[in-house]
């Protein structure tokens, strides 16, 4: 397979990177709480979800090493996320117009 | 095994690999071939249970009013028939049995990526099956909700729904683990030279199926957990009195259960794509399109669950969207049918048993697929919804399609693994009886449905009596054909003529190794230099 | 073909595929959440206010920190620092335990106020409220089960590190175990704002 050489070069993430990601996650947690306390109306949900998505992207990319994996991993992750989005989104063809 | 006098000895192959005999060498084996056979025996056993239940349903419906059982028993009969056939036979049917047997060999691997996980998934299957069977005889008795477990009835009925649903939950995880194993295997363990463009189409179909198993099955798992929560905790998530929405149950249920239809049919299509070229002595027509259409069906099939819900009170917008999308699935399905037919064109066709089953698949699946369009169009569906038309339709696809493909696969591949073959004539007699009986039974059902005979009803108007009688007679012919076929198959595999490496003249890798396959399939890791349907130089004995 | 040496990429691929099924498993609950939120925005707001933000936020920090320890454990084993790996795994487990203890107090407090699925108080209350709390209990309950499974998994992996079967040269089992643990964290990252903060 084509990634043979890349596969063997194992990437080790430094403690420093991990700790800074953790710090960023904590900051983002504070931001989520702050956003949802502000008067944003219905936007609140979307804002909170946006921050949560950034947080999960950080966890997936660095803590879960997705950044250093072969492209196949990112493609299948996308497939899974799109599938979930479709399952939720298509349900709303019913729920929104009933 | 009993030794018939005329039995000629054959090589031991993987049958003698452990040096041990007895059940332990099977239920603790991590060899994909042994696990495949374990699955084969289990699913065939449950298929026969399902057949008997089906025959009893037909017997009850032979005449109006009570014929052999009372109404609650009838409800339990069709529920258990559905649960057994769907969750214990068709879903694991082809992928877990023939997929396990054949796929690793087809890609030139010695086993699947996670052999122990493979065994674990069979164990989950066995445990799930035991739990489902236990639910029939304990608690409030066999579930009577239909295999769809629709709320609110499933949340309220006094029968043993919770346990049955829990069993199906376990079966779901068995299916998921098979999917995880197959995707990883096909990505990681292909032999040198086995590029994606040389993958046999059966393997391609298993790959698409495995993705559906991975991404859709968890949704049914959580849905079933929620049914248990309704019953045990009184969660009220589907109870309109408490703000819940029963239609949301149907959404969640069909988000899985419609793609599950493709878990059932895709591997069957793969079997047919492998058999037709071999018995036409011609490369498959449109290899790339067939491979891509497997992925296309898997993807498009995940967008259309709403077409089961046109009459359930879903919004009109959703009905139109899902109706439109449903027609998109017809495109990749039709691509396959056209390509199979084109492969036959000017081929050197030999009508042996596997081919006869494969050809009847094409016909019966086409009938089922076309009646599916009648159901996919919202306007016509509302007329025939919940009638015997639907029952006839999905039996054409599931039994005429997947069932016949399962038999085709059995006649095509099992001789390879047992080293012996069945007799051709009884196989053809069995096939003919089944084909005739099948059409009498399910065509009649479709006609009955068009006339308004509802499904799942215990009693019916006298005007439906003659056709119901005909359908029941059809079920008997079908059953006789099934017995002829199975007896011939079992006898042949036990003590039939020994066969060589490549009895059909196939070009895929499973026909290039010894019969029966040795322990790790290949003496040396194979290097693939040709396509799966390149018959140049492949001689049919 | 690589059947003699371990196929690490294959093992991780398999793990990711399994994580997708976990994602979709929770996904079913998020489908219900989104539908019922759009139907009962007002009731969800009121019911969400009953949840304790301090408990929720603390647990978020605890889980994020546990994820950090788990990720560091992978780095340390690859560097051959066995002792560090073991302490990091113990720290992860300590976080898991803390999370469950907080969860326990949170749930008991709710039970005391008569808020649990099918309780007389919820049955009598507005319909959206009952739906909110049923979803809350089922989602956090399922998540709690995953915390327990993940904890057990990491403990088992720790014992393998201890005995030397997982080491700098062969550590994909540890990597996969931490992947599972991060998934538990990921799910919580969405549970926290959707249930505790929505307004």
UniProtKB/TrEMBL annotation, chain A:
It comes from the Bacteria. The chain crosses the membrane at residues 12-33, 45-66, 72-97. It holds the Pfam family COX4_pro. Signal peptide: none annotated. Its main location: membrane. The keyword Iron-sulfur does not apply. Keywords: Cell membrane, Membrane, Transmembrane, Transmembrane helix. One of its GO terms (cellular component) is plasma membrane. InterPro entries: Caa3_sub_IV, Cyt_c_oxidase_su4_prok. It is found in: Cell membrane. It is a multi-pass membrane protein. NCBIfam families: caa3_sub_IV. This is Cytochrome-c oxidase. It comes from Geomonas limicola. The lineage of its organism: Bacteria, Pseudomonadati, Thermodesulfobacteriota, Desulfuromonadia, Geobacterales.
From TrEMBL, chain B:
It comes from the Bacteria. Signal peptide: none annotated. The chain crosses the membrane at residues 37-57, 77-102, 122-141, 161-183, 204-229, 249-272, 284-305, 317-335, 356-379, 394-414, 426-445, 465-490. GO terms for molecular function: cytochrome-c oxidase activity; heme binding; metal ion binding. It is found in: Cell membrane; Membrane. Keywords: Cell membrane, Copper, Electron transport, Heme, Iron, Membrane, Metal-binding, Respiratory chain, Translocase, Transmembrane, Transmembrane helix, Transport. It is an enzyme of class 7 (translocase). NCBIfam families: CtaD_CoxA. This is Cytochrome c oxidase subunit 1.
Automatic annotation (TrEMBL), chain C:
One of its GO terms (cellular component) is plasma membrane. The chain crosses the membrane at residues 12-33, 53-74, 86-105, 135-158, 179-198. Keywords: Membrane, Transmembrane, Transmembrane helix. Gene3D superfamilies: Cytochrome c oxidase, subunit III, four-helix bundle. It is a multi-pass membrane protein. InterPro entries: Cyt_c/ubiquinol_Oxase_su3, Cyt_c_oxidase-like_su3, Cyt_c_oxidase_su3-like_sf, Cyt_c_oxidase_su3_a-hlx. GO terms for molecular function: cytochrome-c oxidase activity. The keyword Secreted does not apply. Belongs to the cytochrome c oxidase subunit 3 family. This is Cytochrome oxidase subunit III.
